[in-house]
Amino acid sequence: IKKIGVMTSGGDSPGMNAAIRSVVRTCAYHNVECVGIYRGYEGVMEGDFKAMDARSVKDIINKGGTILKSARSKEFRTPEGRKIAHQKLQDAGVEALVVIGGDGTFNGGLVFNKEFNFPIIGIPGTIDNDIFGTSHTLGFDTALNTVVECIDKIRDTASSHNRLFFVEVMGRDVGHIALNAGVGAGAEEILIPEENLGLERLLESLQRSKRSGKSSSIVVVAEGDKIGKNVFELKDYVEANLDEYDVRVSVLGHMQRGGPPSCFDRVLASRMGVKAVESLLEGKSNYMVGLLNNKMTLTPLEQAVKGKSQINRELLRVSEIMST
Ligand code: F6P
């Protein structure tokens, strides 16, 4: 392989830039040309490429977002779109791709590989941590730190005014952020899609904590929670059923996706970039680089896409015990 393309696709996450830097520098180290592709698969179809050398990625290890920009492409889902993309890569002499993103990104890569036998390695980048085959995706650790910092601040108001706060965090289909940040921030209850607590149980728990002498409480809610009510409806429901609580809602939103990556995410991104490029150079394709037991691993992309990332159930129990 003489030329490798690197791109970011889907939702951005802190650590993507550190991964781009690592891919570019590993290519330079092995005397392989590297091109950056803008806006994910959109940019592949448009031939929006830029040659990148080791110096072109200076000063980005500490930056959130992605300098290559990101997009979710509809056209790449069509055979016609993928044919154009393949032609553009051939025209530019790009022989393999490192794709950084989530399962949508990997699905696109898989289909593309099947059609054109084009070598692809994936790097998991999403704050949601919802990818099978890695204990951590890029950006997850940074997002957790951001959420904990926000809840620490919210706690000041909660305790000064004896209030109950519902804090909504990201996690469309999974509760990793809610569960980990909830334990880290000392939340009273944590509502996640994987576990339906039920409204009755929530009310009982809040009543119990009042009785045990707590004057304020934080409940962390994953946006994909299946309790059947959104966070504002939850507030109304609790206020209607428990008059001892003064309730507020805080939706953290996209601030969770931005900001400088944590040291953990920078190190992880650097390791993943090296592993991705060196795997391609060893002739491997259709794998996702991951972190398992602090070792770099390769999981077939197909499994990474199909497998379900499991929440850490031990944390549910820890949370329950901590809210005694
Ligand atoms: O990056 C994943 C995620 O943060 C989800 O938790 C959330 O539902 C989604 O992105 C929102 O993304 P967007 O605003 O880009 O559609």
How would you describe what is shown here?
The chain is an alpha/beta fold and 324 residues long. It contains 11 helices and 11 strands. The strands form 2 sheets. The protein has a 7-stranded mixed sheet, sandwiched between helices. The mean pLDDT is 96. It binds 6-O-phosphono-beta-D-fructofuranose (F6P). 6-O-phosphono-beta-D-fructofuranose (F6P) binds next to loops.
Strand content: 15-25%
How far the N terminus sits from the C terminus, by CA atoms, comes to 58 Å
The largest sheet is: 7 strands, mixed
Radius of gyration: 22 Å
The set of bound ligands, ions and cofactors reads: 6-O-phosphono-beta-D-fructofuranose
Secondary-structure-derived class: alpha/beta
SSE series: EHEHEHEHEHEHEHEHEHEEHH
Q: What's the average pLDDT?
A: 96
SS field, number of helical segments: 11
Strand order of the largest sheet: 3-2-1-4-5-10-11
Give the overall shape. elongated
Total beta-strand segments: 11
Task: Tell me briefly what this model is.
With 324 residues, the chain is of the alpha/beta class. Helices cover 43% and strands 18% of the residues. The strands form two sheets. Strands 3-2-1-4-5-10-11 form a seven-stranded mixed sheet, sandwiched between helices. Strands 7-8-6-9 form a four-stranded parallel sheet, with helices on both faces.
Key features of this structure:
single chain, 324 residues, alpha/beta, 7-stranded mixed sheet, 11 helices, 11 strands, 18% strand, elongated, binds 6-O-phosphono-beta-D-fructofuranose, metal ion binding, ATP-binding
